[in-house]
């Protein structure tokens, strides 16, 4: 294996191990020693890639930001809905996503960076909403940034409640409920019955393989 | 001071000190030693009232549950809206409420009890919604438990984002935005222009004095 390839592989091993540890323990209780043990690498290899625990957490958040959705749906708002279901399934299956969300929700010494995931999610949702706006799907007078914030905030709370009450098992059903309540305040009434408020069958059925971190 | 009165006073001192410590450090990092120092009491007095840190946290959550709203508003849904603004101002000003919310949102060793505040808030909202339903204010087909969960969940996420991004300074404005997006999916269209989506002036202006814990 070429040196560069080995470097990418170790970086990915560190990020995956760190995601698991952050997801399970939260930022403040996570130790680089445990991240090291789970990654199976040497301390030298860890510090070669990341000078600190904070640097690892920042790298994890930047991975989260790489998820940008492109849509070929004729009804553009469907892409907003599908994005939330994809995120819901991601939270059920992917420690990387769960770690990002935990870093964003909890009040830890990492708090200076905690707003990054909300900004990233808000930007993705806003870009999808702007396509819906262009097609005249939204109600008149909707402020895109405000609507994107509302969708991101609502999803945040829904997923916190679902985690607390069912370990995120009922998250997809809660996302469906969320849309039944939100749609009348967002899209033209005539559009509502043309939107699918269930997960895309292509993403709902097979357990998605754990997402491999991409080296920067 | 009679012995019973002194007992109530010490219990309240412990709860207020504990709320501050839980609010600032989270459950796992809070120590009974720090709670003790802030309360100004002896360790004996602390253990007389509460056998453990967990017992203190459970007592705090039960205080939160005592907040039940009664309404004389002619439009009953206004009471639901006012309740969320009251909660928003409470979070800005009252360490007791902030501690309860932090205990409910974060993944700590206290997690077995974390669903209590959601159930309590959900029950208050649902009881207010049922009065609105009786007066025919809600859209047909609304499931009260689902609507109460949606309002509680949305508020949860909105307040997390507001805390992360502005230290909860913009929470009242965010609550206003939340209602502008939620109302069309909840109440009859003709009612919307009769609802006040700003805080009741009586609660918004003067800083409310810190709420005194009530002894059980």
From TrEMBL, chains A, B:
InterPro entries: ArpA-like, CprB_TetR_C, DNA-bd_HTH_TetR-type_CS, Homeodomain-like_sf, HTH-type_TetR-like_transc_reg, HTH_TetR, Tet_transcr_reg_TetR-rel_C_sf. GO terms for molecular function: DNA-binding transcription factor activity; transcription cis-regulatory region binding. Keywords: DNA-binding, Transcription, Transcription regulation. Residues 31-50 bind DNA. The keyword DNA-binding applies. This is PgaR2. SUPFAM superfamilies: Homeodomain-like (SSF46689), Tetracyclin repressor-like, C-terminal domain (SSF48498). PROSITE patterns: HTH_TETR_1, HTH_TETR_2.
């Amino acid at each position: 294996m070429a040196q560069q390839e080995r470097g990418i592989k170790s970086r990915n091993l560190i990020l995956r191990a760190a995601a698991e540890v952050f997801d399970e323990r939260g930022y403040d209780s996570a130790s680089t020693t445990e991240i090291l043990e789970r990654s199976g690498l040497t301390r030298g290899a860890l510090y070669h890639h990341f000078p600190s625990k904070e640097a690892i957490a920042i790298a994890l958040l930047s991975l989260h930001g790489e998820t940008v959705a492109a849509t070929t749906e004729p009804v553009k708002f469907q892409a907003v809905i599908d994005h939330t279901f994809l995120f819901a399934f991601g939270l059920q299956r992917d420690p990387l996503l769960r770690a990002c969300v935990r870093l964003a929700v909890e009040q830890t010494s990492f708090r200076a960076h905690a707003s990054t995931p909300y900004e990233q999610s808000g930007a993705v949702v806003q870009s999808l909403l702007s396509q819906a706006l262009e097609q005249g799907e939204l109600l008149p007078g909707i402020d895109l940034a405000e609507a994107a914030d509302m969708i991101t905030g609502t999803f945040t709370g829904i997923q916190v409640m679902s985690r607390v009450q069912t370990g995120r098992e009922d998250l997809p059903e809660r996302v469906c409920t969320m849309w039944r309540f939100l749609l009348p305040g967002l899209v033209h009434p005539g559009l509502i019955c043309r939107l699918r408020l269930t997960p895309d069958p292509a993403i709902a059925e097979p357990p998605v393989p754990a997402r491999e971190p991409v080296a920067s």
